[in-house]
Amino acid sequence: MKFAVCVTFKINPKYWNQFLELMMNNAMTSKIVEDGCLQFDVCRDDAHPYEVFLYEIYTSAEAFDLHLKSEHFLEFDAKVSDMIQEKTVKTFRWVS
């Protein structure tokens, strides 16, 4: 059953460009190397210039768990941890 993940990051402005580059690389790598990653969108709202919204779709909750354990995600997470002011994660199971 498909599994959706929505993440909102608020980024320290001085790290904005560096964070965005790392995030885009993480998203691209996830889509290329993870069989269970069906979609990984990185979104912005001009009204909130230092905020990023992720919309991710996985084949299952287990596929998302594998993503969280992947080498590229762990490397990304370690590099950006000091750049993030706030992070919210919500997960959703597919209804239809």
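(ticket continues) Second input and output from the same batch:
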Amino acid sequence: MDDRERRIVDVLIALQPGEVTTYGDIADMAGYPKHSRLVGRILQATEIEVPWWRVVNAAGRLVPGHEGEQTKLLLEEDVIIRNGNVKSAPYGRFSGF
């Protein structure tokens, strides 16, 4: 695992229950602004257990093809989902909506 991947995985692992953020926010927090696609590639490829369900696109859209599982996991963390999008979350980018 290279340094970029390690830093991104560390940010992902640090996400708390009920915290929903975006690929771009993860990239920013890891020190790689404008590398949101890299975050998506790492989420797809990493063998490390990370809370992937807490990451959505900038509009709050759930991961295509995994909406059902992601919705279930987020609802367990008191996140509000409507029409395949995060509307409100206890913590993170979508809190307070």
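Agent notes: Residues 80 and 88 are 5 Å apart (CA to CA). The first strand starts at residue 19 and ends at 22. Closing as not reproducible unless the customer responds.
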